[in-house]
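Sample 3 of the quickstart, ligand pyridoxal-5'-phosphate:
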Amino acid sequence: MSRINVMQPWFGPEEVAAVSEVIASGWVAQGPRVAAFEVAFAEAMQAGHGVATSSCTTALHLAMVVAGVRAGDEVVVPSFSFIATTNAPTYVGARPVFADVDPVTGNLTAETVEAVLTDRTRAVVVVDQGGVPVDLDAIRAVTDPRGIVVIEDAACGAGSTYRGRPVGAGADVVTWSFHPRKIVTTGEGGMLTTPHAAWAQRARRLREHAMSVSAADRHASVLAPAEEYPEVGYNYRMTDLQAAVGLVQLGRLPEVVARRREIAATYAKHIGEIPGLRAVADPAWGTCNFQSFWVEVTSAYPLDRDGLLACLAAADISARRGIMAAHRQPAYAGVRHVPLPVTERLTDGTLILPVFHQMSESEQARVIDVLVGA
Ligand SMILES: *Cc1c(COP(=O)(O)O)cnc(C)c1O
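Result:
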């Protein structure tokens, strides 16, 4: 019996060939492949301009800066998310304000956001948690009239849809992750997309030390023009090696999402017949890529969440505890917040089951057997 991982990236000879070509070209840093990947990704997501970065975390930092979030501002975030969602406002000296989430989707709602708005709220970070599309229009109905920017953390969202379009298509600025735990991977990597040309241009400069002339442009001329540094920037660049992989991976996205949805449908069919388990599902307003297939373990089930995780581990199945809660982490121990009962219930009571492109029927049957037999 072999180990079943919670996630495995899916690569083929095409990625190997793409990386080899970049190495043979002699230009491995940010260059023509990054530019091509930005255009292709932003077009596929119907998201305006793309700015590739070293990770979604660094894209989130740049999103804060271009959205005008400053020290002392309040930024509403779900505690129920990977820690990077809360770290980003902290990087610019803003105060993260935790809001609770919906018990069915695990995402922020208009009500949970409205409950924590103040006249110091500058931005809201909405997350498509585990690939479940957030109801962006409902939240913007609350934030737009107050001039509050919505930043969409779509780290998990590539391939999910919202009201018939890719997630992120309706936000002012969106951030994406290409970590191997996500749907499209470049090893490490991220992207910021925005319909605002000026924001994209500023982010493009900030990720490269805020240099007035890009390294690629300097390289293209024999006598490089003198550059200037109008503001403090960062090195958040992606490499052409990564972008070459990303271009191939982007082409695989429809097939990957179709297969994940097939695996999710099989899980859902079986879990629907097990009292005490509830599986994540498409919301009324969109479709999931099932980046994370999470299951809530309720008191009607014979085991609690940790008990079920132990049973899965005994069968050599590597499931994972559900999404974390940032407000419980020592780094944010001092942050005052409203009660977060749904966040705490979901973070304590959910686990993530294995889903990956190459997962076989017999592997999935092994997981289902444990859920049924526990
Ligand atoms: C994975 C993840 C991130 C961080 O992405 P990196 O590319 O690893 O920096 C941020 N937000 C959410 C919601 C994530 O799931």
